[in-house]
Specification:
Length: about 250
């Protein structure tokens, strides 16, 4: 359960969906805020250039292998991950578990109205889930204290942060000692998908690790970000492979 692999210096838990969910259930029972990070290739590359992001990942209680690039990299490093644990699917499983156990979630991030729409869809799918609160991701630094108070008053089991990386991880790291929640997870654009603002890639793309291509088709403006995947793979191929186990 504690087995990890280092990919370009970033520790990633070698967990499948079931193992990740067992860890999540432990987090919900424990005191304090457990941080869950869902890195893809781009986030791993950025962590190598951003010490604060790397620090947040190192302090996380669980780092799941969200990107297909991480699975490919683990095979190159001769420590293959059992499966890809996508952030959006894992997030869905946590919501299902919370729904079945009278749990709650606070949705924070995305454009105005997106979190509210996502909350409605979540309640339709998981009637037992309590939406403790919602807040869009557009705010000024001086508003953070007010936002923190709003979250803490709601006291959610799961604090879902959709601010994009590294902003979402750094927000949790900055306030984790003051957050009144059991677990916090950065989910990137998952609320946009839940709300219907963005369509999830069809099963063919997901099955073959081509969600990045589908996102590019939907949002051609992401072309610069797409360059992170080949850069990531090149870095892995030529990386020092002597210290890959944590």
């Amino acid at each position: 359960m504690n087995n990890k692999i280092k990919i370009l210096g970033v520790p990633v838990d070698m967990v499948n969906y079931d193992e990740a969910m067992e860890r999540f259930k432990e987090f919900i029972r424990e005191d304090g805020v457990s941080l869950i990070v869902t890195p893809n290739s781009e986030i791993v590359v950025n962590a190598g250039k951003n010490p604060e992001l790397m620090d947040a990942i190192n302090q996380a209680e669980m780092v799941i292998p969200d990107g297909i690039g991480l699975v490919y990299a683990s095979k190159i490093l001769k420590h293959p991950l059992e499966e890809r644990v996508t952030g959006i699917d894992f997030f869905g499983r946590t919501l299902e578990y919370l729904s079945q156990n009278a749990g709650s979630v606070f949705l924070f991030g995305s454009k105005p109205g997106i979190a509210d729409k996502a909350a409605e869809k979540m309640k339709e799918k998981y009637p037992g889930l309590t939406i403790a609160g919602t807040r869009n991701g557009y705010f000024k630094p001086e508003e953070e204290e007010e936002i923190l108070n709003e979250i803490n008053a709601a006291s959610p089991d799961l604090f879902c942060v959709a601010l994009g990386s590294p902003k979402q991880e750094l927000f949790v790291l900055k306030y984790r000692d003051r957050l009144n929640a059991k677990a916090a997870i950065g989910v990137g654009g998952s609320l946009d998908v839940w709300s219907g603002e963005l369509k999830r890639a069809p099963e063919f793309y997901r099955k073959h690790g081509l969600e990045w291509l589908y996102r590019f088709i939907q949002e051609p403006s992401r072309y610069k970000r797409m360059a992170a995947l080949p850069l990531f793979m090149l870095k892995v191929v030529f990386s020092d492979k002597s210290q890959i186990e944590c």
